[in-house]
Specification:
The chain is an all-alpha fold. The protein contains twelve helices and no strands.
Length: 281
């Protein structure tokens, strides 16, 4: 009888936390392929193509400058309005885009999930990584504006905390991944959540100091706002690159703990739902 030496053996998953990190690493090429696919399909059959990466945040920044900066006359802590709003918009756009896209993991990929096996977490991970491409381009654009205003004598004071940018970005990615996979796991059974995601993300933005500095909020309202895990990250970005405000270390610590808890819950739910989601999607 012929002895077959199998390279891969697929077994049913029964535990609560059946995530094989080694297997995820083995599918790194597939993650790369999905990242390329996401980038190409997003701008396929568009006139301006990847230029939308720059146009979208630029138009949003201009709108915020007109509405919140000039009409509502909301303070920007002495910072030039363009760079203040552009930094907040860039950071928030990355988080909200990753959250929105990963929240449809099961419903949007049901066809491919039903045909071929691969670790399902590959899909949301590739979404978060592909979002980094857009973030990098938009962040470079912000840096160009910031350097221009700095040379022009604006009160912009970048500091040593720029070095923690990779950690802040990693936390932002993990937070969006955690919330995204939680929502994607729940939407396989409760489709109403998919309708509420976009609306909820918009409300979440106004609970985050994106179009206003945290210094403009006081009392218990500020405490509630800073308990929002995204708020300390946005404030830390602003302090590191603009010198605006300060880094709320205590709330940033709470945000890190929240991120880890949300990510753990998300991965556990995702692991449970991926076993039976084809029966409900």
């Amino acid at each position: 009888m012929e002895n077959n030496n199998w390279t891969t053996e697929i077994k049913p998953k029964t535990g609560w936390f059946d995530i094989n990190l080694k297997e995820l690493f083995q599918y790194k090429d597939l993650i790369t392929m999905f990242v390329k696919r996401d980038f190409k399909t997003l701008y396929k059959q568009t006139i301006l193509g990847p230029l939308w990466i720059i146009i979208n945040p630029l138009l949003t920044t201009i709108m915020y400058t007109i509405v919140f900066g000039n009409i509502a006359n909301i303070s920007t802590d002495g910072m030039p309005q363009i760079v203040f709003y552009m930094l907040g918009t860039t950071v928030w756009t990355y988080f909200s885009t990753c959250l929105t896209k990963t929240s449809t993991t099961f419903t949007a990929n049901a066809a491919i999930f039903g045909k071929v096996y691969f670790p399902r977490l590959v899909t949301p991970i590739s979404t978060v990584i592909s979002g980094l491409i857009n973030f990098a381009v938009q962040f470079v654009m912000f840096l160009c504006f910031a350097i221009y205003y700095y040379i022009s004598g604006a009160p912009i004071h970048p500091n040593i905390y720029i070095l923690i940018t990779p950690l802040l970005l990693l936390q932002l990615a993990l937070l969006s991944l955690g919330f995204g996979v939680i929502i994607s796991s729940l939407t396989t059974k409760y489709r109403d959540l998919a309708v509420l995601v976009t609306f909820g993300v918009q409300l979440w933005m106004y609970a985050t100091p994106v179009v206003y500095p945290a210094s403009q909020i006081g009392g218990r309202l500020k405490t509630l706002m800073m308990l929002n895990p995204v708020s300390p990250i946005v404030e830390s970005f602003r302090y590191a690159f603009l010198g605006s405000g300060s880094i709320p270390w205590n709330y940033l610590g709470i945000s890190v703990i929240t991120t880890l808890v949300v990510l753990f819950i998300g991965v556990v739910l995702f692991s449970r739902v991926e076993k039976t989601f084809m029966d409900t999607v």
